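Exercise 7. Given the encoded structure of a 408-residue chain, write a plausible sequence.
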């Protein structure tokens, strides 16, 4: 059993967070989240274009990357829109972990061209940048001032998403993660009006993902599902979504990693990623995300990679607190049966995450991690966890430091 080294004053802060979580839990329960029309199959992009036209929208800002242009995805979308009489303009400069500067640049293109909606064509970075643009487009405030809980008074422009990674689920989440320009610290916009009106899940768009990005983004989806499943705010609905996503990832991610052209497995991963997004959007996440965000800010660690490395360690730390739930998950996913003890079943989930990481060539150490940075990383992770997450077992700063030291 991992015994927490939290101090007396940290324990007091945990108690305070529990009270805050109760209130946040009620708020999230009541939060209305729009239904996203999920379009699949070879004609899905055309169907999305038709939906945009049916909403009487005239000019779309396509938010994307140079890679999506090179692979011809952007032209395909422009042609589909044009067929339905919708004009389009492309902003293609989104970088991984987009900054406020990225959002400002895209917003300028949107405004110059009088676009009346945005379509994200890319991974989580593209979808999040586009979400921030549609909020800033109708709210005349610096983008920085729009971060936090629903800070835009006016309704954002309509938003559509075509994910080209299977990991973040951002097409259905109420969150957008934008990094500060200089420090690269991650800031969060929470606004249920940024959930996509419609999303295309087309496996032919993720087939081009290299094996390493397939693995990292896939483990990001896994982290969403597991942190949602063990969240203090979890409920039967989020549990069912999380278990469905975990099952899908256990089956399909190793196939996608080995054979990126397997479209059936790619489709299953796209669905699992979306399902994991639906699982966590009302119940929040935990220490894997709190710590991984700091790795991204300090070292530019890809979000999914940071999550993947941390996931087995954080679950191992939390195991005794959520042993019953992990045991249920183990049985649901075929890792064990009623003949095993609860402790064995819970451990089997940790072991499975470790072996899956190994199969996917995820390292057990973090490249670039500096020992002298660990106290700062721990301090910032500690603060983030007590602001926006709902982890089942609290970690004091010393616990976080001890966990990060394992990655040296
Ligand atoms: P990403 O969007 O940064 O993409 C990773 C890399 O893959 C990029 O270089 C990109 O150009 C490339 N890429 C994308 N699609 C490709 C394709 N089909 N073929 C080849 N290359 C492709 O990665 P991501 O993991 O999807 O998103 C990470 C971002 O999302 C982080 O900033 C993270 O904080 C954020 N995030 C947001 C949410 C949310 O709910 N809004 C949830 C989780 C993570």
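Solution.
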């Amino acid at each position: 059993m991992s015994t927490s080294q939290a101090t007396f004053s940290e324990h007091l802060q945990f108690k305070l967070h529990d009270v805050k979580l109760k209130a946040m839990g009620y708020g999230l329960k009541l939060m209305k989240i729009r239904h996203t029309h999920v379009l699949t199959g070879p004609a899905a992009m055309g169907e999305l274009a038709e939906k945009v036209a049916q909403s009487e929208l005239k000019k779309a800002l396509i938010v994307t990357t140079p890679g999506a242009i090179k692979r011809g995805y952007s032209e395909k979308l422009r042609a589909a829109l044009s067929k339905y009489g919708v004009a389009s303009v492309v902003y293609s400069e989104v970088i991984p972990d987009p900054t406020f500067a990225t959002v400002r640049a895209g917003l300028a293109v949107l405004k110059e061209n009088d676009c009346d909606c945005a379509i994200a064509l890319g991974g989580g970075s593209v979808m999040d940048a586009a979400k921030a643009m549609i909020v800033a487009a109708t709210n005349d405030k610096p983008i920085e001032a729009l971060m936090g809980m629903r800070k835009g008074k006016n309704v954002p422009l309509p938003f559509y998403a075509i994910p080209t990674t299977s990991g973040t689920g951002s097409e259905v989440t109420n969150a957008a993660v934008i990094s500060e320009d200089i420090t690269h610290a991650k800031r969060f916009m929470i606004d249920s009006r940024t959930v996509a009106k419609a999303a295309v899940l087309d496996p032919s768009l993720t087939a081009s993902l290299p094996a390493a990005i397939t693995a990292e983004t896939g483990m990001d989806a896994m982290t969403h599902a597991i942190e949602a499943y063990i969240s203090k705010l979890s409920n039967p609905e989020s549990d069912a979504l999380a278990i469905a996503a975990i099952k899908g990832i256990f089956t399909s991610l190793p196939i996608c990693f080995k054979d990126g052209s397997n479209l059936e497995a790619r489709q299953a991963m796209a669905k699992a990623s979306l399902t994991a997004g639906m699982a966590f959007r009302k119940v929040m996440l935990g220490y894997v995300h709190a710590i991984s965000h700091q790795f991204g800010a300090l070292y530019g660690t890809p979000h999914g990679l940071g999550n993947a490395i941390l996931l087995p360690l954080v679950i191992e730390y939390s195991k005794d607190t959520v042993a019953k739930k992990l045991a249920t998950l183990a049985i649901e996913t075929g890792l064990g049966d009623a003949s095993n003890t609860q402790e064995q079943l819970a451990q089997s989930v940790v072991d499975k995450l470790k072996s899956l990481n190994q199969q996917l060539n995820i390292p057990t150490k973090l490249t670039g991690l500096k020992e002298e940075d660990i106290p700062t990383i721990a301090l910032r992770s500690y603060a983030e966890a007590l602001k926006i997450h709902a982890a089942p077992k609290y970690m004091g700063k010393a616990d976080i430091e001890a966990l990060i030291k394992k990655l040296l």
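Remark. The chain has 16 helices and nine strands. Students should compare their own answers with the one above.
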